[in-house]
């Protein structure tokens, strides 16, 4: 009993930091509609800078000054980034800001290593609070009592700020209708910058107060960002009270889950999130989103079929790909095989996002299930490659059917977050169910059959399968079913009013997208000869998003271009450059600013018209 | 001139909506912008305050060229805008809605306080703490106007204020507008028909398919029933 109470206090202490970070994310999303992926990075920066400052500022006053100063410095940095980077892309589709902030995250991860080194850093104890206090005969760190108090204090402060100040009223108004706020003479830019700075301040403070409890390291950002997403979604986006409630729930789940259900402790949080979202689609205290902006994927121009020339070009590309083995060595061929696999993966994600309008933060789930499907078949049944290529994706199909049923009940950011939750559930199962999946050690020895073991043959197998699947996706997009899917994306109400069963259509599209991702995953397992939980990890999902967005949502072919460009770039950079994350991140940021319509979209809109005879005389638009 | 508009064009994406719209409004005047649904009235207003994606043309307000200015900068010069779809902040109380609209007093324009607003719209006085979402359509429409007045504008663009309101509310609205006019405000009011506009306007512009088709006093409009029948809903 005493132990349980101390464990409860432990949970509360963790909840405070989580709440600080989550409330920051929530406030930023509420006003600017940015899903700030870099929030974890700012949290991490807060911790690192606080660590450095506490080395110089000592004593009680020095210590707390250092924490506060660290948060302020990071907040100023956040404001600077908002003014120079994000301000340029507020009008771009929502996900581009996610992409830009992801690029920032990559950059910060490397910068932190460059500045502070790769080792874990142990911060000082809080002066005067080094000891432990006996609680029911158990010892509890005195500093954690401060943390427990910090959460409610910040919550109260935020409440006062939003209720009692003009700034707070403006922020709440902008959360609802920012155009109207500017039509009343309020400078939006200034409001956005200040909101962003406040959100980042909270994130950095959350990181800074962690240093007496935990070592500072360069993976802190991803560790917290997933939990923060979960907290924000469970609490309801844009709702600070919800974030507090959810932070407590999640932290207590973590504290007790490890005691009660050690086997599924990692899954537990995501299970709770999935249940909450299904029961309350907008979180515990959230409200329905007001769609102030066109939904993602809403095409300014509809997808275009190939003309004769386009079709010829595709045949030429295919022929070119078939000729690659003539001059490529084994290494280049395996790189080529990987590019093909990711082209299919990206195309399947595009089917879901660009065509279906369902943004997925967790597409790796189906890729990974496909890979594990093959792995498990080989491990337990000794299945040959031919059988595994057919049966492996079945696991992905099953996953897509199950998860899709839940997901199509939601929309927008909530749907995206639920896909993330499911992907993390899959990851946790693969990671934790050691007896079946081998956990961290993965499954080894997934090799192609003898006839396909030559890299060239396997390249052709992959080329044939991926080309066929991508062709199938194209056919789906331009089929009556594809029109129905796009109809549901563009207007649920109009689609339903002409008799389309939206949920069934979207569920089917979801399942199809999962199936193609699963096929890609199975091929990937055979390419690598092994499967590890990483294939289901968040980085895989994010890679997919980057490929699709980089290539351009507005074109059917875009994701394939994006996949080839991004994967080739990252394979080359990881092998050639020490700080490849920094370069890649910077590149993503630049690309987002330069090509908000993606590479293929840029081509279609700007370059390709130069080659076409002008079909219609259009009036010049300033 | 309070407001001079010359050669105003506006686009939504590739759709060209306004074609060389022009307008001249003198200080203290109340002018009606008439036209059918979809004629371009709302786009004209939105263009004046920079809320359309693309526009071109000369807009001179109080001697300032505002044709390329950002929305909030135009509004801060004293050009108040009341949108047609009652975009009040439903989560905020009446008081808070007014607070969002508040701007410093401005020379050459009446200065409003919440108390004066409540006098002008007595309905709002009894619901200061009520959330905007819990008000009737007419009350919301009054709140939109009141909110814009809190910015102490010298000119107000009113987009179809009588749209969809009960006759009794329309009457209250008309009283409020007459009082605003008496305070010296310049007003441009858009309407689909003449009934409401006639109560307060001195002059009228008729717009159809994005072009100005008629301008003149209401008397002149009455003398040309064929114009009225061609361009206005009856």
Radius of gyration of chain A: 25 Å
How much helix is in the residues of chain B?
25-40%
Kindly identify the CATH topology of chain B.
Rossmann fold
Provide the spatial order of strands within the biggest beta sheet of chain A.
1-2
Q: Give the CATH architecture of chain B.
A: 3-Layer(aba) Sandwich
**Beginning-to-end CA distance, first to last residue of chain B:** 32 Å
Largest sheet of chain B: 6 strands, mixed
- Sheet-strand content of chain B, in percent, reads 25-35%
Give the oligomer, counting copies of the same chain as homo and different chains as hetero: heterodimer
Structural class of chain A: mainly alpha
Largest interface chains and counts: A-B, 23 and 31 residues
Overall shape of chain B: it is globular
Strand content of chain A: under 5%
Overall number of structural domains of chain A = 2
* Approximate shape of chain A: globular
Write the element-wise H/E pattern of chain B from the N-terminal end onward: EEEHEEHEHHHHEHEHEEHH
Question: How many separate structural domains of chain B?
Answer: 1
The proportion of residues forming helix of chain A, as a percent range, comes to: over 70%
Q: How many E strands of chain A?
A: 4
- The poorly predicted ranges of chain A are 291-299, 613-622
Q: State the separation between the terminal residues of chain A, measured CA to CA.
A: 72 Å
Family (chain B): Belongs to the ABC transporter superfamily.
Pfam family, one (chain B): ABC_tran
Protein name (chain B): Amino acid/amide ABC transporter ATP-binding protein 2, HAAT family
Keywords (chain B): Amino-acid transport, ATP-binding, Nucleotide-binding, Transport
Topology (SSEs and partners):
The complex is a heterodimer of chains A (622) and B (234).
Chain A: H1 2-32, H2 39-56, H3 59-84, H4 94-116, E1 132-135, E2 138-141, H5 142-164, H6 166-176, H7 178-183, H8 188-208, H9 220-235, H10 240-260, H11 265-279, H12 308-327, H13 330-355, H14 364-381, H15 385-407, H16 412-432, H17 434-437, E3 443-444, H18 455-477, H19 480-490, H20 492-497, H21 502-528, E4 530-531, H22 538-551, H23 558-576, H24 580-594, H25 599-611
Chain B: E1 3-12, E2 15-25, E3 30-34, H1 41-48, E4 54-61, E5 64-65, H2 71-76, E6 79-82, H3 94-101, H4 114-120, H5 122-125, H6 137-149, E7 155-159, H7 167-182, E8 186-191, H8 194-200, E9 203-208, E10 211-217, H9 218-223, H10 225-231
Parallel strand pairs in B: 3-8, 3-9, 6-7, 7-8
Antiparallel strand pairs in B: 1-2, 1-4, 4-5, 9-10
Helix pairs in contact in B: 3-6
């Amino acid at each position: 009993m005493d132990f349980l109470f101390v464990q409860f206090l432990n949970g509360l202490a963790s909840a405070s930091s989580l709440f600080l970070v989550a409330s920051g994310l929530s406030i930023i999303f509420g006003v600017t509609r940015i899903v700030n992926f870099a929030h974890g990075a700012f949290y991490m920066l807060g911790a690192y800078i606080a660590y450095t400052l506490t080395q110089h500022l000592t004593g009680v006053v020095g210590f707390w000054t250092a924490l506060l100063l660290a948060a302020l410095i990071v907040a100023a940095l956040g404001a600077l980034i908002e003014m120079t980077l994000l301000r340029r892309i507020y009008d771009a589709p929502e996900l581009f800001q996610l992409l830009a902030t992801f690029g920032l995250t990559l950059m910060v991860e490397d910068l932190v290593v460059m500045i502070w080194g790769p080792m874990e850093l142990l911060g000082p104890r809080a002066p005067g609070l080094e000891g432990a206090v006996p609680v029911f005969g158990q010892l509890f760190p005195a500093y954690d009592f401060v943390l427990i108090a910090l959460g409610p204090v910040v919550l109260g402060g935020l409440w006062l700020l939003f209720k009692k100040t003009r700034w707070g009223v403006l922020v709440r108004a902008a959360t609802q209708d920012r155009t109207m706020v500017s039509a009343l003479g309020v400078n939006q830019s200034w409001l956005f910058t200040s909101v962003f700075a406040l959100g980042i301040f909270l994130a950095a403070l959350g990181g800074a107060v962690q240093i007496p409890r935990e070592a500072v390291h360069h993976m802190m950002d991803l560790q917290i960002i997933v939990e923060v997403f979960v907290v924000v979604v469970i609490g309801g986006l844009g709702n600070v009270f919800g974030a507090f409630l959810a932070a407590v729930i999640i932290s207590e789940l973590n504290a007790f889950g490890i005691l009660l259900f050690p086997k599924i402790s990692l899954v537990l949080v995501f299970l709770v999130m999935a249940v909450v979202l299904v029961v309350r689609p907008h979180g515990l205290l959230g409200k329905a989103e007001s769609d102030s902006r066109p939904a993602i994927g809403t095409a300014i121009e509809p997808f275009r079929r190939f003309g004769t020339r386009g079709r010829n070009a595709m045949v030429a590309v295919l022929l070119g790909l078939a000729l690659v083995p003539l001059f490529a060595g084994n290494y280049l061929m395996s790189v080529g095989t990987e590019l093909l696999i990711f082209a299919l993966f990206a195309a399947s994600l595009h089917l879901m996002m660009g065509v279906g309008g369902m943004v997925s933060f967790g597409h790796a789930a189906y890729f990974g299930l496909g890979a594990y499907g093959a792995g498990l078949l080989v491990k337990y049944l000794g299945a040959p490659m031919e059988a595994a290529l057919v049966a492996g994706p079945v696991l992905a199909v099953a996953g897509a059917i199950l998860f899709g049923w839940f997901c199509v009940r939601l929309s927008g950011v909530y749907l995206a977050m639920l896909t993330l939750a499911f992907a993390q559930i899959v990851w946790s199962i693969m990671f934790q169910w050691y007896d079946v999946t081998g956990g961290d050690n993965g499954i080894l020895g997934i090799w192609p059959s003898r006839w396909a073991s030559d890299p060239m043959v396997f390249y052709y197998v992959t080329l044939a399968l991926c080309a066929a699947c991508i062709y199938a996706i194209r056919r789906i997009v331009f089929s009556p079913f594809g029109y129905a899917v796009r109809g549901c994306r563009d207007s649920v109400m109009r689609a339903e009013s002409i008799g389309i069963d939206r949920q069934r259509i979207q569920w089917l599209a979801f399942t199809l997208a999962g199936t193609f991702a699963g096929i890609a995953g199975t091929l990937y397992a055979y390419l690598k000869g092994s499967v590890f939980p990483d294939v289901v990890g968040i980085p895989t999902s994010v890679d997919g998003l980057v490929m699709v967005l980089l290539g351009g949502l507005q074109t059917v072919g875009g994701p394939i271009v994006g996949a080839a460009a991004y994967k080739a770039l990252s394979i080359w950079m990881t092998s050639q450059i020490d700080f490849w994350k920094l370069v890649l991140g910077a590149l993503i940021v630049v690309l987002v600013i330069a090509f908000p319509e993606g590479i293929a979209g840029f081509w279609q809109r700007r370059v390709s018209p130069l080659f076409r005879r002008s079909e219609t005389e259009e009036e010049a638009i300033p | 001139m309070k407001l001079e508009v010359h050669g105003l064009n506006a686009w939504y994406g590739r759709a060209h909506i306004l074609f060389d719209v022009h307008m001249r409004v003198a200080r203290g005047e109340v002018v009606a912008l008439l036209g059918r649904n979809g004629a371009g009235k709302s786009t004209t207003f939105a263009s004046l305050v920079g809320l359309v994606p693309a526009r071109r043309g000369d807009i001179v307000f109080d001697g300032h060229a505002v044709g390329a200015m950002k929305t909030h900068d135009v509004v801060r010069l004293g050009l108040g805008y009341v949108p047609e779809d009652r975009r009040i902040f439903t989560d905020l109380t009446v008081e808070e809605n007014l607070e969002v609209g508040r701007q410093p007093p401005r020379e050459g324009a009446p200065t409003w306080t919440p108390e004066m607003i409540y006098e002008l719209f007595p309905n709002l006085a009894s619901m200061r703490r009520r959330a905007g979402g819990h008000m009737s359509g007419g009350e919301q429409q009054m709140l939109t106007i009141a909110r814009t007045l809190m910015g102490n504008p010298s000119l107000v663009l009113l987009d179809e204020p009588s749209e969809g309101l009960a006759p009794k509310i329309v009457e209250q609205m008309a009283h409020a507008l007459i009082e605003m006019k008496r305070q010296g405000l310049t007003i441009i009011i858009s309407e689909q028909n003449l009934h409401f506009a006639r109560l307060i306007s001195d002059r009228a512009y008729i717009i159809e398919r994005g072009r100005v088709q008629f301008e003149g006093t209401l008397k002149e409009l009455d003398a040309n029933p064929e114009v009225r029948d061609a361009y206005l809903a009856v």
